[in-house]
Amino acid sequence: MKKQILKILLAVCCLSAAGSLATYQAAAQTGSQKDREEQNRKIAEECEEPGREKPATELKSKMSLLCGKAISLPKPQFPEDAKAAKASGTVAIEIVIDEEGRVVWAKAAEGHELLRPASVRAACRARFSPMKISGRAVKATGFITYNFVKE
Would you tell me how many other CB atoms lie within 10 Å of the CB of residue 104? Predict the structure, then answer.
């Protein structure tokens, strides 16, 4: 009888410890998710800052290679001043992605001046699968193009 009670108490303690561990792990994952989101937001804000020096990269990609690896490509907002000026056309944004696939640097390479800032903002929020060389994630450079059409 005492052995059965001890087994039950031990099982209850183990379940309680497992539950506490699961709660702790869930809280840690939620915290780390929030930390990652905050870090991604800061990286996107830094990416948008004009005049930043382009980071060194190990891999230069063609546009089709980066686009094939896109996880998220937010569309830029059509700026009101560009609409008023009847601006349209294609804007090419040169980007650098880090080892995690986040855009860490972006610069408009060509396109209408009024459309460039919105395009850079959108490009800085894009996400890609990490680019790899011999199985190792590396920084890479490429281009994203946005087409603005008059409405």
Answer: 20
Query: Burial letters for 54-83: b for 16+ Cβ neighbours within 10 Å, e otherwise?
Result: eeebeeebeeeebbebeeeeeebebbeebe
How many angstroms separate the CA atoms of 109 and 68, rounded? 21
Q: Provide the token pair at 70.
A: 């896109």
Q: What's the pLDDT at 118? A: 97
**What does the DSSP 8-state code read for residue 24?**
H
The pLDDT tens digits for 114-135 are 999 999 999 999 999 988 888 8
CATH of the domain at 121: 3.30.2420.10
**What residues make up the domain containing 138?**
49-148
- With tokens 């709660």, the residue in question is 23
Tens digits of residue pLDDT in 6-54: 344 333 333 333 444 344 444 445 568 888 888 888 888 888 888 888 8
Shared domain check, 77 and 58: yes
Exposure string over 107-131, b if 16+ CB within 10 A, otherwise e: bbeebbebbbbbbbbbbbbbbbebb
Task: State the pTM of this model.
Answer: 0.72
C-alpha span between 4 and 12 (Å, rounded): 12
